[in-house]
Amino acid sequence: MRFMALALAQAARGLGRTAPNPPVGCVLVREGEVVGSGFHPAAGEPHAEVFALREAGEAARGATAYVTLEPCRHHGRTPPCMDALIAAGVRRVVVAALDPNPQVAGQGVAGLRAAGLEVVVGVRETGALRQQAGFRSLITRGRPWVVAKYAMTLDGKVAAPGEGGGAVSSGAARERVMAWRNELDAIAVGSGTVALDNPAMTTRGVPGGRDPRPVVFDRQARSDVQARLWRQGAVLVTTPDANASAHEAAGVTVLRAETLPDALTALGSLGVSSLLLEGGPTLLSAFLEDGLVDEVRAFIAPKLLGAGLSPLMAPARPMPAAQPLRDVTVEALGPDVLVTGLLSEIPRL
User: Fold this and answer.
1) Name one GO molecular function term (predicted).
2) What pLDDT does 259 receive?
3) Mean pLDDT of 205-228
4) Pair 337, 260 in one domain
């Protein structure tokens, strides 16, 4: 458990940077000591096992490899990690979770065992699945894992668009959001948010931060092409009939879709594996109504606003129709409370 925790910490270094590949970490241990470690930094780069083996050198012979995802057996952009572990003389492999990719899906574990290595599967599997949720969603459903984030007052109100500095949550909450942006592939808002707030949608303040790909849902393609969020990799999601020529001329990637599920599939085709939904009540409501939110991260601030906007614009449902969250966590963050939970099962195989 302790060494797999180290491997998960290694994998976390690649979050938001590996799509469409998964974040993976590997730690090599010999006689109770870590002799090598590594993580997958980006698609096309060597996998975690390769970096760990390079660091360990001859010390890898007879060692145990702790890997957060089943070692691959197929040739992709890089050679199979299964073969590298066998060639290095590793005697035992501990795997957190099996790979849902049909090209792997148990074959890596089977190949290691066939070569005489001892293999253990399922150590800290829950943590690995959470880390790999985006990859698993993309490989099994063809669309990104959608995380809905919002902040509301104790009486269930959100800040109105265009309020500028009138944030609901505290500085500690905003720092956490910046960290999430650094770890997820893309960030989405609606056209109303662009028009009223002109957000930058960056990871300001995060050391070594990587700005997520901005995605704007705009049915009429009316968002100002001079808005701050348009940068390399930015995406405009609009309808088939909308005139988005100005955005295309400005270098914005334009995706045309009739429905939100179609839009998510189109984002998946770009390699987007995780999407942080930061849009206003209208966009959040639309995603929830279509059953497209996989995970919720909600800040509750200890303040009362009275009249104001609700996080959701959809009509209220009867309580028996409420969607329960699973794997719920509650955390005090400064003066606020952060509640997180899953609406969808993380895909396995």
Assistant:
1) zinc ion binding
2) 97
3) 95
4) yes
Question: Is residue 286 marked as binding?
Answer: yes
- 47 annotated ligand-binding residue: yes
pTM for this prediction? 0.92
Residue 322 placed within a domain: yes
Q: Does the annotation count 183 as an active-site position?
A: no
Same domain for 334 and 187: yes
Marked catalytic residue, from 45, 49, 163, 248: 49
Residue 17 is assigned to a ligand binding site: no
Total tally of structural domains belonging to the chain: 2
Q: Do 179 and 199 form a contact (C-beta atoms < 8 A)?
A: no
151 lies in the same domain as 297: yes
**How would you write 55-87 as a 3-class SS string?**
HHHHHHCCCEEEEEECCCCCCCCCCCHHHHHHH
Domain containing 214 equals 142-342
Residue 300 makes CB contacts below 8 A (sequence gap 6+) with 151, 152, 153, 154, 336, 337, 338, 339
Tokens of 98: 């099996």
pLDDT at residue 312, as a whole number: 73
